[in-house]
Design goal:
By secondary structure, the protein is mainly alpha-helical. It is about 80% helix and about 0% strand. The chain is built from eight helices and no strands. The longest helix has about 80 residues. The two termini are about 50 Å apart.
Length: about 260
Amino acid sequence: MDLEGIAALTAAAVAVVGIPASLVMGRWQLKGALRGAEETARAGQAQADASYRAALDGARAQGHNDHLQWRRGVQREAYAAFLQSVLSYTDGAKNDLSRASGQEETLACIAALRGLETDMSHRGWVVRLEGPDDVAQAAVTLRHSATLLALVYEQHARRMAAMHEIDARAHVHRREVTRIWELIPVATGFWRTIGTPEMEAGSEAVLQELRDLFSTCELPGGMLATLCQPSERAPVDVPTFDEAITGFIHAARIALHPAEPTAP
């Protein structure tokens, strides 16, 4: 019903029952105002609900982002600490052992390396705990590669120390030292056959002569194995140290700085 119809109806009511026109119009106006207020209140409540949900979603998103940043910070510290422990271990093996002079100092350097190796292993486990899997696997590979590299330096240092100890006896046992250096290449040639059917009969005589010469020069018998035992070949499935450290850094960088999702 339009406004003219309402006015006509109102006039008729006034004429019939004698209700004052002002009172009838006031009630209609009151009802209209109440309806308007209810609609305004509903709209306001809907807007308030939407604002609350938006604020809650924003708080959740911010909390999620803050958690991701915290996790990345923890991972970054774990990765950096592991990488530093690897470099301390390999640099110590390379530099300290190369500066060592004599058997005693070499053995002291090797003992110090054991502590660095343990620290590297512990920090590697932290990286594996933090993940993700690609970084954890890269850490395992790097630790193995670093251990093999340090072993190469260690074997070289042991040989150099043994050679130094033998040469130091030359001023007293010149003939014996000369003979030792004549027999060492021979023993190295058959060393892998010791204790096997392939070992030739004359090999035992060479070993016995070397033992006697070492005893005369007051050299430890274990030094013979240090000089004659061939170096073990590196496993083919383990990359070089440079490859392994590059692979770990690449995996860590991807984990710490993931690619942003492309817009639809």
